[in-house]
Amino acid sequence: MAIDREAVKMHIRGLLEALGDDPDREGLRETPDRVARMYEEVFEGMNYSNHEIAQMFDKTFEEDLTFSRTNSDFVIVKNINIFSYCEHHMALMYDMKVTVAYVPHGKVIGLSKIARIADMVSKRLQLQERIGTDIAEIIQDVAGTEDVAVLIEGCHSCMTARGIKKTDARTYTSTLRGRFQTDMMLQARLNLALH
After folding, report:
1. Does the annotation count 88 as an active-site position?
2. Tell me: the pLDDT tens digits for 26-78?
3. What pLDDT digit, counting tens, does each position of 64-86 carry?
4. Shortest CA distance to 45 belongs to which of 94, 5, 84?
5. Catalytic pick from 40, 86, 146, 187?
6. Element (H, E) at 132
7. Which listed residue (89, 105, 146, 187) is catalytic?
8. Dist. CA 150–CA 138, nearest whole Å
9. Is 140 a catalytic residue?
10. Residue 158 catalytic?
11. Active-site residue identified among 17, 63, 88, 129
């Protein structure tokens, strides 16, 4: 599904009018086009399914690793910075940090690909909880492992800049798959790695 730039421009112009402003005044004249171009960039992930994102970033290295289905060794990438837009208010979710951990089963993902997956998933109208679920699903697909953990913390402007206006509020979510749900030693080691 491609983003319809002309439709976005038309609707942004209508929104400016609905807000009581003049879209033909100098400061707003190019705003509909600028917003449409920005939306193409910040909502790029809406053009792809999770499976298509997995195919885009399917760069793995098959290794004779000591990782196995029974031990507690894993790969972890912390503090991947992303932002997204809440689907409820189209408000910015910001200062978000994603941590991804997985137990390799014969192959490892290129580290930059993990960050690219997180970034592309965030470029959708989203919920923080769904970002974690989408990243986990894609990592499982690319790495061929069920054992994935995705932890996210972030701020939501729908809570910090409007409504309740609690500027220090942060939201934490965790998505645990495979042994990260059931293996207490793996959970303990993940906890240790996070602190």
Report:
1. yes
2. 999 999 999 999 999 999 999 999 999 999 999 998 866 655 556 668 999 99
3. 665 555 666 899 999 999 999 99
4. 84
5. 86
6. helix 128-143
7. 89
8. 11
9. no
10. yes
11. 88
For residue 18, the model assigns a pLDDT of: 98
Catalytic choice (11, 105, 146, 158): 158
55 is catalytic: no
Work out the pLDDT band at 2, boundaries 50, 70, 90. Answer: confident
- Of 126, 135, 136, which is closest to residue 156 (Cα–Cα)? 126
- Of the candidates 158, 148, 145, the one whose C-alpha atom is nearest the C-alpha of residue 186 is 148
> How far is residue 161's CA from residue 36's CA, in Å, rounded to a whole number?
24
Rounded to whole angstroms, the Cα distance separating 102 from 45 reads 23
Residue 155 annotated as catalytic = no
Instruction: Kindly report the number of other CB atoms within 10 A of residue 58's CB atom.
Output: 14
